[in-house]
Amino acid sequence: MNLNLIPAKDSKALAYFLATMNTNQQHHIGYCGEDSEEIYDTLTNDFSDLTLEDSFMVAYHNDQIIAAIGIDVDLATGVAEVWGPFVKDHDLEIADLLWDQLKKKGQEKVKRFAFFFNKDNTFVEAFVKRHHGRSQGGDFVLQKLRSSSVNYGCSDLVTPFSLSDRDSFIELHNQSFPGTYFTAETILKRLNSVNQLFVVNDRNSSVIGYVYLEANSDYNEGNIEYVAVAESQRKNGFGKLLISKAVAELFSF
Q: Which CDD domains match (predicted)?
């Protein structure tokens, strides 16, 4: 097979390829969306601290994209979230060729590569093992639709994050999610009108629980990125209150 391996240039074509692949659980990557317009918007406006050409490698055969892999690099932390590898025929050799080219572009800037793939995506699992990656656990994804939303009610115990919460929030986040894709400092830097952080405080005003969400009103979707309750405060209903608040906020957009 004659392959042409080049840095990403045609964002529209790449977004369409990624969306088509990512709707299949056997190819699915958690970092990547499933709507081509949303992916295109991310690639052109909010993807990586590197240029797109330094962040994505694409394989063409007969002028058609057959494989791609990208790294969403955060230069501040040295962490890169890996989009892919997406390979139509599950060819590990093609994935390796793309990976070798891509790593050269980011090897001096990236300390750690993070993968987030569907449990049915055995191809990427094999790829990660092939490159001596190690598992740090798994995640369950709950999809909730506005039409099926249940109103659990909100509580005055759940309040927006304030500067006085900073130190205890950072401590709880680091304890709950060591080595995760967003550090506590990264979350705080990302806060705005659609990326929101809510907390529950104890009597000493320390954060004993929190939920962090990101909404994308342009595409009518959003994610609860993190929810945590201090170990000593679990089974008191705080997690349910935090989730209820996050769902209510997301559906308010």
A: NAT_SF (cd04301)
Same domain, 229 and 166: yes
119: tokens are 């449990």
The answer as to whether 139 is a domain residue is no
* Residue 251 DSSP label: T
- Residue given tokens 């025929």 in the structure block: 89
Cα dist. 19→55, 78, 118, 237 in Å? 17, 27, 15, 38
| Domain assignment of residue 157, yes or no | yes
Q: What is the pLDDT of residues 57-89, one digit of tens each?
A: 999 999 999 999 999 998 888 889 999 999 999
The pTM for the full model equals: 0.74
pLDDT digits (tens, 9 = 90+) for 23-44: 999 999 999 989 999 999 999 9
Contact call for residues 15 and 45 (beta carbons, < 8 A): no
Look at residue 177 and tell me if it is in a domain.
yes
User: Does residue 85 have a cis peptide bond before it, meaning omega lies within 30 degrees of 0?
Assistant: yes
Look at residues 83, 103, 130 and tell me which one is the last residue of a structural domain: 130
Q: What CA–CA distance (Å, rounded) separates 77 from 247?
A: 29
Q: Which domain holds residue 196?
A: 146-250
123 shares its domain with 38:
yes
